[in-house]
Amino acid sequence: MTATPPTPGGRGLAPDDALTTHPIPSSATRSKCGSGLVRECGGSIAPCIGSGRVHIHFLGHDRPHHSAPRSAPTRSQHTGVHLYSSLALAALIAMSTLPAYAEPLLERAQSRGALNVCTSDEFPPFKTLDANGNPSGLIMDLIVDLQQQLSIRIGQPLKLSLVQVNPLNRLLFLDQGRCEVLVTSLLDTPARRREVDFASPGFYSSAATVFAPKSTAIPDWESLRGKTLCAPATSVWVRPFERRYGVQFASFNGTAEVRKAVADSRCLGAMGDDALYSALARQPEWADYEVKLPGQEPAPWGIALRKGQPELLAAVSSIVEGWHANGLIIQLEQRYGLTPNAWVAQQHVQARHE
Predict the structure, then answer these.
(1) Is the pTM here over 0.90, yes or no?
(2) Spans of biased composition, class Polar residues (predicted)?
(3) 195 and 277 together in one domain
(4) Which of 148, 173, 268, 309 is surrounded by the most beta carbons within 10 Å?
(5) Angle between the 310-326 and 138-154 helix axes, to the nearest 10 degrees?
(6) Are residues 54 and 113 in the same domain?
């Protein structure tokens, strides 16, 4: 069955009780330490428990696609997601003394036995497909850990169901209750906080930069006046940089379309997150491109929730705080070969001293 692709109006995905699931068994098994619920013991990250597997369902959509070719990960780039085994997870749930939440969306998650997470295509290695076509990457590992920890907190195992979204419909799907949380490289800004709630702190951070061919001379921001850059239609940086530097923009539905437009030379380069484009520049197929300018207007990436869920918001915020405190995000940066993020390092130091 082929699902109808999402549109800005949200069509193509049935209401919650009529969603079609497509089971995708994960090929990833656990290794010694990773993105399962990591515990801190004596200042170090303790190994994870068990050797279970995770079953991921895509709701209403085919598997996400990526414009760039994929290659099988090397041993040092292994993207396995480290999860609790069924017995270990059941034991932890049984020992949990936290009460079950009574908020509407979480009640629906408990009723269906699955946590619906809205997520989108990202730049590798933040989120990509492994050699078997299953989702992997830093963001995917955090999504799985979030599912594991929420299962423990509500006292019930929850399967993980991914709802594929794009920049145009992601907040709409969240507001419609098609997912409990939205986990992408979504910037936490004051304007977006008027529409949704964000777990605090964020889990990563980035700033605006320009990504273009190495042969393209862009000495500074002022040199972009009157030039055309590609950017997602929902980018929070478009209007400020139009006003400040006179940049013109060609808008696209998402980052995959932006990358394709840049590769086709339909614009001078792309405006986007420095963290994402720095990682993309290290991919072999983008060896002739580079990040051109130092980042401006940094902002954290936040996990978004529909408004009016204080208990779920507090639970997710607590989980993110734990990621910073135990160094999980830093560990994932190292696993995926990412340049250390200064904001993440600062959050880690701050969390360990609180």
Answers:
(1) no
(2) 23-32
(3) no
(4) 148
(5) 120
(6) yes
